[in-house]
Amino acid sequence: MLLSILLISVLLSWLLTAVFRQYAIRHHVMDIPNARSSHSVPTPRGGGMAVVISFLIALTGFCGTVIGFSSIWLWITLALLLIAAVGFIDDHRSLSPRLRLSVQFLSAALVLLGMGNVPALSLAGWIFPPAWWIWGLLAIGLVWFINLYNFMDGIDGLASGEAIIVGIAISVLHWIEGDSSAVSYISLILSATCLGFFFWNRPPAKIFMGDGCSGFLGLAMGTMMLVDAMKDPERLWAWLILLGVFVVDATWTLLTRWKQGNRLSEAHRSHAYQQAALRWGHGKVTASVAGITLIWLMPMAWLVFSDRCYGIVALVIAYAPLCVMAKRLNAGRM
């Protein structure tokens, strides 16, 4: 059953991306290059909505036939739909940052309310039970994930490729530990839908993802991370390790620009991955990020999953070389 759902997800996403590409061309929904762009030719955008539709269809089928429907997934689906819809509108007509941020916090609240509780926080053996400040911290964290993924969707195939790799990696880690929970299957479904889109988005991209999908992916991964952490608080650190390239690059760049007094809402191309793409090209950077995730970050995440290392310790070790790379690539400076 799962294999059939995965194959259908890939095919459906591939077909829908072709449909959205024709729609974008016909209605002039194009990303026009400018001084801050990482591409050089006008390219259709908004194709990532194929991922959104395919994933939600596959998720509905999976929940209905394998794990059964539950209120938590209904709330999560509503939050994902909301963030995707606002992003899709923003792709067509620019919305104010205040409105987008308000919707992002509303979506985060829907996820947390749907879960009914939040995971405890684990810090090198110290366990902080759920409290009001943890609810607030996790809401901010989900909003950061939404924006983080949007920030990192700036070169061909990077955002979709990251979703594919992380989804597969988290499933493998679950299976290594003998855990066949819903998160392990749902992350695979997300990877499958992104794979169908990646065919069109790989370098050189024939269509871009758009804000509707990038925010959707950020919220989806952040949500699965919290659901996973409900079972074992240490897994929150494992997810953060796997997403390390995105977390470090986006955070380092944002903090650097803030220190320099730049407007944080202003478009730019000073992320480490963008600087690297200018030197070596989109394809090499996208492939390198996948390699770093599989060869360096996944083993570090496994140490956490298997209780061989405290999550915070593994995260510091995993992030150290990523911070060095961000600094050497002048992330946040142009």
TrEMBL record:
GO biological process: cell wall macromolecule biosynthetic process; cell wall organization; lipopolysaccharide biosynthetic process
First and last residue of the signal peptide: none
Transmembrane segments: 6-25, 46-67, 73-89, 101-126, 132-151, 158-176, 182-200, 212-230, 236-255, 285-304, 310-329
InterPro entries: Glycosyl_transferase_4
Keyword hit for Transferase: yes
Cofactor(s) needed for function: Mg(2+)
Record's GO cellular component terms: plasma membrane
An example Gene Ontology molecular-function term: metal ion binding
Binding site for Mg(2+): 150, 211
Membrane topology: Multi-pass membrane protein
Source superkingdom: Bacteria
Main location: membrane
Record keywords, A-Z: Cell membrane, Magnesium, Membrane, Metal-binding, Transferase, Transmembrane, Transmembrane helix
Localization: Cell membrane
Record protein name field: Glycosyl transferase
Species this chain originates from: Rahnella sikkimica
